[in-house]
Amino acid sequence: MRIFVTGASGWIGSAVTAELLAAGHHVVGLARSDSAAATIAGLGAEVRRGSLDDLDSLRAGADDAEGVVHLGYNHDFSDMQGAAETDRRAITTLGDALAGTGRPLFIASGVAGLSRDGTPATEDEPGDPASHPRVANAAAALAYADRGVRAGVIRFAPTVHGDGDHGFIAVLVDAARRHGVSAYVGDGSGAWPAVHRADAATLVRLAVEQAPAAAVLHAVAEPGVSTKAIAEAIGRGLDLPVKSVPAQEAAAHFGWIGMFFGLNMPASSEYTQRQYGWSPTHPTLLEDLDAGYYTRS
């Protein structure tokens, strides 16, 4: 299958590109810069120059493909609404291009904010658009199932971890270094879902190959690692003490990530694993932390 991938040079996208290529698919990766193009070409994929703002390049990429995986996103927390609007336009452009073809379109979303009462959120939880604008974008993508697109959503854990990850956990490590202490919020019982990057990439491939229209999949290997356990692992890696920070002081201590780290957001992938034969096999988040991937100099 010829698959057009946005975000193909990114942390998740590059792993997905490699996974799809290894399975015999032809990947065309969207690249907005020379460095992104070099990364995509280095993986063995075809390069299409463009960006999420360049709707003509998105339309051409989808028109020329047998399927689309939309992983690109501008993770600018200073303009979350603007990033979501860019994502919405990209989804609409890709969906319109594939309308009536029966071809797959799978987009990335997240499980954060789906759990309403502390129980693990399941794949049939629709989510509240007020919690994050990406929830509405996911609904817009699923609507293309009624327009002849095999459209679906892959909800990723907030931490897609592995050697080289510079996401949320790396930010927490930086905060621990600055303060000389590894902290958690409140009693540290908040649940933080996680998935290894390689396991996530496998699930994306399975979705493209198997999932029906309107499918929602959870890329979650661990339903919820306690935030206290994460802080303790960071403390071990940096040889720092571990302490609790009151919820009202989380933003001051951690910065912008404080509002996320204190959340209790467990999520289940039992249906996803059963339905698609997905069995995460790679190291857990705490194993990657103890391996030193996040705390070595």
UniProtKB/TrEMBL annotation:
CDD domains: SDR_a7. One of its GO terms (cellular component) is cytoplasm. Pfam families: Epimerase. One of its GO terms (molecular function) is aldehyde dehydrogenase (NAD+) activity. Transmembrane segments: none annotated. Residues 3-210 form the NAD-dependent epimerase/dehydratase domain. PANTHER family: NAD(P)-BINDING DOMAIN-CONTAINING PROTEIN-RELATED, PROTEIN YEEZ. This is Oxidoreductase. It comes from Dactylosporangium matsuzakiense.
